[in-house]
Amino acid sequence: xxxxxVMTQLLNGIQLGALLFLMSAGLTLVFGIMSFVNxxxxxxxxxxxxxxxxxxxxxxxxxxxALFAIVGGLILGIxxxxxxxxxxxxxxxxxxxxxxxxxxxxxxxxxxxxxGPTSVYAGTPPAFDGSIALGDASYPTYRLLIIAVAxxxxxxxxxxxxRTRVGMMIRASASRPDIVSALGVDGKRLKxxxxxxxxxxxxxxxxxxxxxxxxQPGMGEPVLIxxxxxxxxxxxxxxxxxxYGAMIIGIVDTVGRAFLPLLLREFLERSVAQAAGPAIASVxxxxxxxxxxxxxxxxxFPVRHG
Length: 306
Description:
11 helices, mainly alpha, globular, single chain
């Protein structure tokens, strides 16, 4: 086990955490403000990846692909919120789960009809097509770009939530929606824009993940599961919790998958260790979540009210 291998896997964990943060930031606001269980958030991530791939194939430009993803995610978020989600705010959580699960099936079929069942190619920006030296190894610069984008968005969201009037209304709506409404704030419009903003963040996640994963129907479901673990671990409704929770889950999952097989080889046969290591690593994040909830039921970084 070399230093460069450890550093590479840590960066891979941070990069996975960066993608999870882009997913969890919008979803945790939807949970926290609207108390809305949105299982279709992974589908917004998938559609953002498809929009970006279509833009790249049409223009061979990553910037145009990013524009496709952001604008497409925004429009799709507004349409879904106005036509479906807004009708479900006052319904039971089970109803919300069923409706948004139906949206998952709907978007998966739309993806198959429009783009086909096979994977769609999404390219990387030429300026980030290489790698940088990392000791005896190298690390792709595009993965560093993913980390940088997530850190930049986290800083923008922190300023927006904690330093602006819009952020004040969002935080107030999460704790006392009745008072916010009494003060003349249009709650319906605020919810619409929060949901649409979450859709944009998910679409950016799909944009950034497209070049390193397969853009295909159903790609949002595995990410959604890990995203739910992130927001429960970090604290529902907390951007800070989403950021730190995503980084922790990303590193735990990646480092576990990389090094548990090596550790198990000391006690088991090589073939058994190679099979058991990733399986145990996939359980680690759920064990970690269970431990967090046992001692801190509101998450590691819950929303501060008052």
